[in-house]
Amino acid sequence: MASRRYMTFKSLGLSDALLKAVTKKGYTEPSPIQEKAIPLILERKDVLASAQTGTGKTAGFTLPMLQILSSGQPLRHRPIRALVLTPTRELAAQVHDNVKEYSEFLNIRSSVIFGGVNQRPQIATLKNGVDILIATPGRLLDLLNQGALSLSKIEILVLDEADRMLDMGFLRDIKKIMGLMPRQRQNLLFSATFSKDIKRLANDILNHPILVEATPENTTVDKIIQKVYRVAKEKKTGLIIKLISEGDWKQVLVFARTKHGANKLCKKMISDQISAAAIHGNKSQGARTKALAGFKDGSVRVLVATDIAARGLDIPLLPHVVNFELPNISEDYVHRIGRTGRAGAHGEAISLVSADETSYLRDIEKLIGMKIEKQIIEGFEPDPNASTEPIKQGQRSGRGGSGNRNRNSNAGGNSNRRRNSNKPSRNNNRNANRN
Q1: What does each C-alpha distance from 103 to 135, 200, 377 come to in angstroms?
Q2: Is residue 392 packed enough to be buried (19+ CB in 10 Å), middle (13-18) or exposed (0-12)?
Q3: DSSP characters for 27-42?
Q4: Where are the domains of the chain?
Q5: Which terminus of the chain, N or C, has less C-beta within 10 A?
Q6: Domain 2-215, what architecture?
Q7: Same fold, 2-215 and 220-391
Q8: 389 with 286: CB under 8 angstroms?
């Protein structure tokens, strides 16, 4: 770590225009993932990177991508030369914001397309020419099918949060998209985990990739205060309302396992005079944007989210994260609580754990290499007669408890089932509107 103290963005080989933009954003020192990835990308290497939200990964690929594209003269008609694929609308919008900020002093045009909003303004922007396109797979395929854009001049492809894209059923879409691009291109794949599916995808699309890993996943929890409240399942709602009210928490991100559960919890909080909003795959883009804006400006105290909807949310200095229900994928716990304790600040992560989540808690503690402090609050005691068997109800899929169960329900399972079917193209249009 000592060597990093003297590392600067300039020493990574970035241009003056990019350094000016980085300085304007207030950054002085590259993060570990930026320090490792930027020089490799500038050398035009294919990169397979392990990086979570909050590690600075977006700048890790955005800055060198901008430098590469701006090094030559812009082509007259500005064909799309770089494509960034993301799993969710929120992440696509966030990446585009970063691209715009970092390219402020460059002659680079960028645009973002995703479903849930009118496609006509997106098509109009594309007709004017863009150098960098950030997109979700569904809307991108829809516009490709309409002939609204071409990927024939792509020089750089970025798959951001590739693990989530696979979990959401986008593999077939990704392969279709790759088939429409030149074989000779630079490929960058960013993923929080290196599962077998990710390694298989990397083998398909990357050319002699260089593996880049930031700090190990479980070290992100070091500066976060973690607590577990053992509680009866039916008493969870009452307990979380008590904690928020008596603690006078002003900004709380709560994770629920399903869309229905998120809605139900949100309504109960509102009825108890706690301003709350829910975000998940069934919410319109306008509703999700409004909920996030309210959460950031303080008019909404509690944001209840599913894992998919929360992925890519940019919420700085978040003080409290609550797992209303534990995820069945241990790594997801690390992703969730990693949204607090950022930028050197301390955060608090609380999990409400019922008997049927006992095995999930055990797996999480094994992953992070520590036992989490457990408490019981009077009046909210766990049920001593409750089964410790994990929840059934069709929520576990095959593949050893894969996250497909969660992700498909959170992201709008109907759209994913349509995506993986061989239905006519009119269904593809509906898919695009969902992503």
Answers
A1: 18, 33, 51
A2: exposed
A3: --S--HHHHHHHHHHH
A4: 2-215, 220-391
A5: N
A6: 3-Layer(aba) Sandwich (3.40)
A7: yes
A8: no
Does the CA dihedral 246-251-256-261 come out positive or negative? positive
> Would you write out the chain's pLDDT as a tens digit for each of its 435 residues?
344 445 788 889 899 999 999 998 888 788 888 999 999 999 999 999 987 666 788 999 999 999 999 987 666 678 999 999 999 888 899 899 999 999 999 999 999 999 988 999 999 999 999 999 999 999 999 999 999 999 999 999 999 989 888 878 899 999 999 999 999 999 999 987 777 888 888 888 899 999 988 754 444 455 688 999 999 999 999 999 999 999 999 899 999 988 999 999 999 999 999 999 998 878 877 888 888 889 988 899 999 998 776 665 667 668 899 999 998 888 788 878 877 765 455 688 999 999 999 999 999 998 888 899 999 999 999 988 888 787 654 343 333 333 333 333 333 333 333 333 333 333 344 343 445
Token pair in block for residue 230: 């053992």
Q: Which residue has the tokens 């990397």?
A: 202
- Contacting residues for 220 by C-beta, under 8 A, at least 6 apart: 52, 54, 334, 337, 338, 341
| Residues 6+ positions from 16 with CB-CB distance below 8 Å | none
CA–CA gap between residue 340 and residue 253 (Å, rounded): 9
Task: Note whether 366 and 129 are within 8 A (CB).
Answer: no
Residue reference for tokens 């395929």: 141
